[in-house]
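Reopening this one. Same input as before:
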Amino acid sequence: MKITACITTMNRPQELDECLKGLWSSTYLPHAVVVSDNSTDPEVQQSNQEVVQRYAHTVYLEGPHTGVTANRNNALHAAPQDSDRIIFLADDIQVSPNFFERAVQCYQNLPPGLDEKTILTGDNRNEFSPPDIGPLGVNFRGYFCPWKPGIPQVVNLYASLFPKKFLDQEEWDEQIFLGQEDIELSLRALRCGYQIIYEPTLKVFDTRFQKTTLPSAEQGKMQSYEIYVAASRLYIGIKRYKHLFPNPIKLLIFRVVYYLHMTLYLLRRKSLQSWPDIIEISNVNRL
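Same output, byte for byte:
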């Protein structure tokens, strides 16, 4: 099985080096690695290129500088066509040494033909997470939650392997700048007939959890990252009930609940001035 890793990076050469070192020390080596760099400083870009040059079968690309989803697509488009599976990583993710070996074993244990319609997902751990996170779902309002029958299952992004054939058909939605974009891709996978299987032995570690590379500009009490996530949840919720799994009643209820809850939330945060930015960033006018 040929596995290609698509890494997005921004302004973190040291973390990128550690990520690549971990990948190329795996017990089952990747077929190829593609690094797409959204760094804004030319000196940092040069440092990242020098890091990449130290590793064979690793390609460096300058990113599109238009958001994390576009950066992932940039890496995806450069993945070798003969790849069987794709894993998406950030520069601060450390893959466990036996991750790929274990994933290949899991695929081999599936019934013939089912492996091509299966997305494997595991645990993305950090210093604050429990030993086993468990399978994830998405609730009616668009929040991650523990998965249970009756709600859609979603991937734990950086611990997931996607069939290349699926990504040839469906790529990341670039209307989402960042935030919960893995929920949206998971919903499209389910709509296309793919299944998501949780395998607890597949583990990665987030070395810089909650340390964003976004500028720290605030709107009132809201950080930039929080505004992007709030906008993404609005976009994904409307897309979910309007296009992916059309349901006019659920769409209406979602809109009402979202706007009421967000207004109250912004009032508590003394951030009502963030509303126009959330609406603009959400791109709901394009749905």
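So the earlier flakiness isn't reproducible anymore. For the record, The longest helix spans residues 224-244.
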